[in-house]
Amino acid sequence: MASAMLLPGAATLGVMGGGQLGRMFVHAAQSLGFRTVVLDPDADSPAGLVAHEHVQSDYLDPAGLARLSAVCDAITTEFENVPATALTQLAASRAVAPAGSAVAVCQDRADEKAHFKASGVACAPHAVIRSAAELAFVPDSLLPGILKTARMGYDGKGQIRVRDAAELAAGFAALKGVPCVLEQMLPLQLELSVIVARGADGAIVNFPVQQNLHRDGILAVTEVPAPAVSAELQAEAVASAGRIAASMGYVGVLCVEFFLLQDGRLVVNEMAPRPHNSGHYTMNGCDVSQFELQVRAMAGLPLPQPRLHSPTLMLNLLGDLWFDAAGQERTPVWDQVLALPGTHLHLYGKQSARPGRKMGHLNITAASAEAARDVAQRAARLLGLPASW
Ligand code: ATP
Ligand code: MG
């Protein structure tokens, strides 16, 4: 169902999924005066704990979906692996953004790459491998490469680096023969991402380009303005992200990840149909956050062009920080970190820390990029994170 404009203070917004992205969506919606509902199977989900109502059910449970559509005026999602069919079902009676069809494209790396091509945006040379028989047809030029499951990958999970045909066959078997995409291993200079928001009327706005550093396949640091990306390349990334959104009639917040290759070419990696970890800096560095734009887009409210008001760095806070060298659980030295100027701590309210688990993030804003980086490095040292990047 198409959305009429939902005015702040007078409507209820729902979100499929109760993780940290859902929690920050709920906070943004509540600060605009909306009622909020979260659907998530977990009794302790970060977003369910802070919403007005938590529908505790499976994503495909008809009773849960019926409750969500009964109480919400509009519904969104906080993760791309929510069953697209559930979104399509909800859309029969309620405004849903992004659409199930758009989320479905983002769920499958093969479809996603076909969409990039159709949008005129270059991605990594690749082959889709749906069965062991197809291994024989993979061109040598794609090796060495990265074999990725077509579906359900995140934080580098479901990926195997392969050097030759024998490793490729072994890797495909190790991934249990599920449909995969083999991508050529590209010589990366750095990684960046762009977040755009598109309204039902087709208007598109964007946040500035983020430069991202990953460690062990997980985002570690985001820096804005991107220190090593030229203005021309930034404009190209923003234009490409806009085309990718527009060519699927997308409504909502979309993050597009890019690689900058050593030869200076820009190549799209993947996209997420929602706010993104690399956009968390917008909560403190911009005059409107990615979560507020998600709220505005689904409510049919105006989408102003966001403005970066302070150079900002984001440090991801993984569960590893909650353990000392001897493996004993500890509380990170928040008091010392918060004594540094321009530090903004966001913890997701997760009940227990595990290595690699996203527990929160720290945004550092300052009057200059140099000052933000200096404080971020001091904070990293206090927390026991690598302090040079
Ligand atoms: P997430 O959803 O957390 O962003 P993911 O599991 O979907 O991650 P990708 O973004 O596909 O995984 O890859 C994870 C990281 O692996 C990339 O950020 C990049 O550092 C590296 N990588 C992926 N594909 C390639 C490639 N073709 N060439 C070189 N490096 C790559
Ligand atoms: Mg990625």
Automatic annotation (TrEMBL):
The keyword Disulfide bond does not apply. The keyword Nucleotide-binding applies. One of its GO terms (molecular function) is 5-(carboxyamino)imidazole ribonucleotide synthase activity. Its EC number is 6.3.4.18. Residues 113-299 form the ATP-grasp domain. Pathway: Purine metabolism; IMP biosynthesis via de novo pathway; 5-amino-1-(5-phospho-D-ribosyl)imidazole-4-carboxylate from 5-amino-1-(5-phospho-D-ribosyl)imidazole (N5-CAIR route): step 1/2. It comes from the Bacteria. It catalyses: 5-amino-1-(5-phospho-beta-D-ribosyl)imidazole + hydrogencarbonate + ATP = 5-carboxyamino-1-(5-phospho-D-ribosyl)imidazole + ADP + phosphate + 2 H(+). ATP binds at residues 109, 148, 153-159, 183-186, 191, 214, 269-270. Keywords: ATP-binding, Ligase, Nucleotide-binding, Purine biosynthesis. Homodimer. Catalyzes the ATP-dependent conversion of 5-aminoimidazole ribonucleotide (AIR) and HCO(3)- to N5-carboxyaminoimidazole ribonucleotide (N5-CAIR). Catalyzes the ATP-dependent conversion of 5-aminoimidazole ribonucleotide (AIR) and HCO(3)(-) to N5-carboxyaminoimidazole ribonucleotide (N5-CAIR). Belongs to the PurK/PurT family. This is N5-carboxyaminoimidazole ribonucleotide synthase. It comes from Roseateles aquae. The gene is purK.
